[in-house]
Structure formats: structure tokens, C-alpha cells
Amino acid sequence: MKGFPGFPAGPVRMTPVPAPFFTDLLPQIDDLGELKLTLYVFWRISQQEGEVRFLSADDLRGDAALLAALATSGRSGEPALADALERATARGSLIAVRGEQPADAFYFLNSPRGKAAAESLARGEWSPADQPERTLRVERPNIFTLYEQNIGMLTPMMAEILRDAEREYPAGWIAEAIRLAVEHNARSWKYAAAILERWKKEGRGAKPASAEDERRKYIEGEYADFIEH
Length: 229
Description:
mainly alpha; 3-stranded antiparallel β-sheet; 3 strands; elongated
């Protein structure tokens, strides 16, 4: 079982869940897939803006993380999603409006706003195609989480080093450097820092070095001082 490193420090985006979910709905839910889907919909809907908030069947089928979370040893992701949607709509936590094609469906939370939007869609008063694109915003893990998940335990001294790196390099650079350190089988912050220093000198826009190139540099001694044994 993969461990959870804990919620990150600092400001994080919160997902509002109405109190009746815990007092009225949660005691009724007897299926893990339905529970996961219901919480997921709260999260996805909360990321949207505007009066009309919904998810299409394609939105749900297109999220690989959701499908992986719903899959079981005896059922793959999409059939598990279909079952969870059927349970949630039958229970009444979600409202489904079917589209013109059999595979098309649009799902709303059963709230006053969601119910009004679903009813107006069913009456043909608006079209999902005319609504803003519902992109999934995936928040980047902070530098401490990246370090603990990919390199090792965080110490107070290492935390200070990482804070200095945050001030010096863009967050995307740091995440990519850590990923390359893992990919090149050199799980060391010193190795990642060497990559960042090289990008600072040579520019990040250059073609990334391959794992074989990085190994060659290691053999030739370019990174020798940056590898922790």
C-alpha cells in the first residue's frame, strides 16, 4: 500500500462540502465507488465558476486518476464509473440529464443551483456546448512534498536549502529537476541542484539531456561532486 505523506504546509485550495452530506447522505451511502465519485464531484464542481456548473460524462471518463480510484480487482475504471453514477443518480445526490447521443450525459449536484440548471437544460434553454470549457486544475505539489515523495526525509537544514531554491528557480524547473534525478536513478537533491545550476547557466529552453547523456556526464565526472553516496 502506498503511503500518504500528509497534507502540505502553507495555503492550499479547500473544497467546500455541505454539512448535510455528513449528517444525511453519508450514512446512506453503502458503496465505496459511489462515495468516491460523490466527493470527486464536490471537488470538480467547486473548481468551476459561473451560475451553471456541471460535469459531462466525457469529463468524468477523461480523468484517468478518477478511473484508477474507482477500478477494483474485478472491474476496470469505466464500468466502475458507470455503476457509481447509476447509484448516485438513483440515490438523488446527482441529477443526470441525457444528451442527444446515448453516451452523452450531464451531471449536476442536487442542490438548488444544480437542480435549476438541470431543469433549464432539459427544457432546452441553454446548451452545454455554449458553456466555458471545464478544465481540470491540478495543483502542483509544493517543494517539500516533492522532496519527500521522491528523494527522502525532510530535515530542518534541507528545508532551508529548498526554500533558497524556491527563491532562485521557477517551481516548474524544480519539479522537472527532481523528476530527472529520479529518472536517472540519482535520488539526491545535490543532483537535482546541479541540473538547476546548469539550466541557469545554459538556459532551460535547450533540448533536455537524455538519461544516457546524464549518465555519461556522471561517468566523466561533471556531476561527481553532486552525487550523494
